[in-house]
Design brief:
307 residues; alpha/beta; six-stranded parallel β-sheet; three-stranded antiparallel β-sheet; 13 helices; 9 strands
Length: 307
Amino acid sequence: MSEKPLAGISIIDFSYRLPGPFCGKILSDLGATVIKIEDHIYQDPFLSPTFANFDSNFLTWYENLNNSKNILRFDFNSKDDQQAILALVKNADALIMGLPFETRKKLQLQESDLKFNRPFVVVELHASRTEKKSMHDLNALALSGLLSLYIGDNHKKIIPPPFLPLAGISFGHKAATDLLAGLISAQKNSKSIFLKTYLDEATKELLGIFWPSKERQVERTSFLHNGQYPCYSIYQTKDHRYVALAAVEEKFWNKFCQIFKITTELDRFYNQDQQLFNLVSAHLSSLSLKEIETLIADEDLCLSAIL
């Protein structure tokens, strides 16, 4: 097996919860040696009773985000441990920073402490460049306007948020991209590079482009990817399971109609009066999931059972 592209690169991860650790996971998956440093008492909040005791999913997230890293825990108030931490940082190529200002000061990890005479990159994760209030994934989606697309015409008094923390995931990915860009610049210029990545800006930059302002201005909220057309939607089967149909291309749609014996002159993008939606639904709901899987076992038509 060929060596991964970041083999030989050492990165210190001082982040917690989701975005920073996800950034570190991306870099670790690319071959970097990532050392996650936590306070021996406080550790990562995903391990705390506040999170882990009421929802075990946070513990699972912690394990999945950090299982490829070396996790070291120190007493942040110990002078000896502070020196040990600083020694690790001085031997690293990059640092993911998510510590509060006072902790950074105590550990001698302020920007002035990290200006080494060699290539070195620091990526700091912040909520916002302009907004002073704290925010989480849901707040960033709300402030970007993207959450209104999810809500749509729903008039319920309480609406569950999307399960996947899309803003936080995008934030972590953007931080990893910024760090990699910083490594290139630092190597080229042989100096320390300090970068800041923001949750709200990353959300708008990476996710906002898929619902651009011109579409918002005309109040368009229905698209191919959220179910405007019959050829790209989710349908229930006879046994109350579901299949995902994504027969966007004509060849896949024609193959789908052929296999499921759907006879229609309507175009796959016909979305008036639910007629074609109902026709497709009627055929798929007459079959069990197993029957559908048998029919499509050797066929390439972009129809998948939802596992």
